[in-house]
Amino acid sequence: MAAPFSQTFIWRTISNASFRRIHFNKHVGLQFSNANPLKVQRSHYLTRCPSFKSLLNAKSRYFYLRACGLNQSSRVGGQEFSRSTISVLYIAKVGVALTATCLIGFGLVKSDWNRFKVIAEGRERLHAIKPSRNVQVDTDKSGLKLTLFQYQTCPFCCKVRAVLDYHGFSYDVIEVNSVTKKQLKWSDYQKVPIVIVELPGSDQEVVIKDSSVIISVLESYLHDNAASIPQLCSYYPCLTENEGRRKKYDFQNKYFIMFPRTVDLNHTVEERSEERKWRKWADDHLVHMLSPNAYRTVKESLQAFQYFSAVGQWEQNFSFLERYVVIYIGAAVMYVMGMILKNKYKLKEDVRESLYDACNEWVKAVGKERVFMGGDQPNLADLAVYGILNSIEGCTAFQDALQNTKIGSWYYRTKAAVNSHQGAHQLNSSS
Ligand SMILES: N[C@@H](CCC(=O)N[C@@H](CS)C(=O)NCC(=O)O)C(=O)O
């Protein structure tokens, strides 16, 4: 009797309650016909069917029987499966799975182990990114391999490049797409500049965020390279604060140069204090003059973005569409942003006046007696102010500042010092 049933399945169609009988004939294949539900219920022959038993697990059989309208409790293969037993088992399993997923997820986010895992994954992705260009300075014997993630015309990135170039560091540049930021997928910190330092003689990499921290760490290293980069980074702890959906970062001591083993014989306390004061002024005041001035009108905004595209080699680094989206949408957005920032930072009605005031303030602070604020050589304040202004060098705002203030001679002196790597002796004496 078992033989014909062993190749027969019965199921209830989803659309209605009629039962269908599938008969498998090895010569003909599957055959479908209507089945008698009463016969199905009465005989339970399905549950005795060996191929049915072997095909489906107990839970599936239970639901199958329920779908067929059989009893809530069914004996299958000598085992009693009631709806409540199945439900409890099912809920328990789902509960355990969900709890485990939540715990693992929470653990992954919180644990140090995960940080290492994320960093490891990040590294893999990081190494897959091709540098947009390489700055090679033959005299660089530091052994540090530096990679700068940047926007070419971001003032904070220009500031970092001014310091790297002044000291004659060789470095790779990775131009970040400001819209997609796909080059920063590996990083939780989504701002530029970021510098990655590969340490000499090891495969260890250190990620340094924030322009002022990058500059202070490298400057401290130049004074005493026996202090390791990770050790120096630890003197600039990062504090984060949630500001709505955004994360706000603050880096302690970022304007301080650290001397963990030695003393600063080359500068007085007053000189260092002045340097810190003007570095901070550059970040907190001068930088806010840029957007309202560079994007003062729609025409100037578009012209600024075309200049950014040319110096940032966007044609080379981004697709045609990406470039045009960034130029036209960027110019429109930044024109509006310029007006917002003008009000936020309380610039004068004619924003040029505020830019000229800032330039004059700086020229006065350097004074007539000094070539640079740092004396005969630019210090970090000179390089910061130069870097920030350099970001708008091709814009009408900068040309207006040259014509209407006396900043030009200092600016071009600093530019020459940066481009000729005048601080290279410091880099090489430290290596
Ligand atoms: N305090 C940071 C500021 C860096 C910053 O704000 N960078 C801008 C570019 S100029 C940025 O990346 N903004 C985020 C964005 O573009 O989404 C530093 O000095 O590095």
Automatic annotation (TrEMBL):
Domain called Glutaredoxin: residue spans: 147-197
Superkingdom of origin organism: Eukaryota
Transmembrane segments: 324-341
One of the record's GO molecular function terms: prostaglandin-E synthase activity
Pfam families: Glutaredoxin
Coiled-coil regions listed in the entry: none
GO annotation, biological process: lipid metabolic process
Record's keyword terms, sorted: Lipid metabolism, Membrane, Transmembrane, Transmembrane helix
Record GO cellular component, one term: mitochondrion
InterPro entries: GLR_AS, Glutaredoxin, Glutathione-S-Trfase_C_sf, Glutathione_S-Trfase, PGES2, PGES2_C, Thioredoxin-like_sf
PANTHER family: MICROSOMAL PROSTAGLANDIN E SYNTHASE-2 (PTHR12782), PROSTAGLANDIN E SYNTHASE 2 (PTHR12782:SF5)
Functional description taken from the UniProt entry: Has a glutathione-disulfide oxidoreductase activity in the presence of NADPH and glutathione reductase. Reduces low molecular weight disulfides and proteins.
Family: Belongs to the GST superfamily.
Name of the molecule in the record: Glutaredoxin domain-containing protein
